[in-house]
Every structure is written in C-alpha cells, then in structure tokens.
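[[Local backbone shapes]]
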Amino acid sequence: MTKDEIFSKLKGILVSEFEIDEESITLEATLFDDLDLDSIDSIDLIQKMKEFMPEGTKIDPAVFKTVKNIQNVVDALVPYMA
C-alpha cells in the first residue's frame, strides 16, 4: 500500500469513527492539538488501521510513541502495510 493510500484510509477512519472534519486532516495536522485526539484515540486509530494490514500483523507499540502528526503515522504504518 502506498503512502497516499495509507493517508486516504487514515482520513476515512478519522472522519467516520472520530467525526473529524475532513478538511482539517492534512499530513501536517498534529494528532493531539489540531485533531484533538487523546492517547486512547490514537490506539483506537491504529486498531482500525489493522483491518487493512495482512492478517496476523503485529505492531510494535514503541513505534507509535513518537508520532506527532498524520505524516508520522503514515510513515510508521508503511512497513506494516505490505
């Protein structure tokens, strides 16, 4: 899956599951300040993205401790979205 496809999936989840305005979801948007997500929301977001990963994929939680914005999330998901 390409970075653009991952971004599109993330955007869809953020709009449908978290009721975030689509126009505010950009690669530069910060999860906590711009999109008003909390740490539980970010875990839920990653769980929703697992639906698009190969079955049995295990995500290292440490990878997501440093994400700040949507671009960071996309970059962190690339290795898992083969």
Summary: The chain is about 45% helix and 0% strand. Residues 31 and 75 are 14 Å apart (CA to CA).
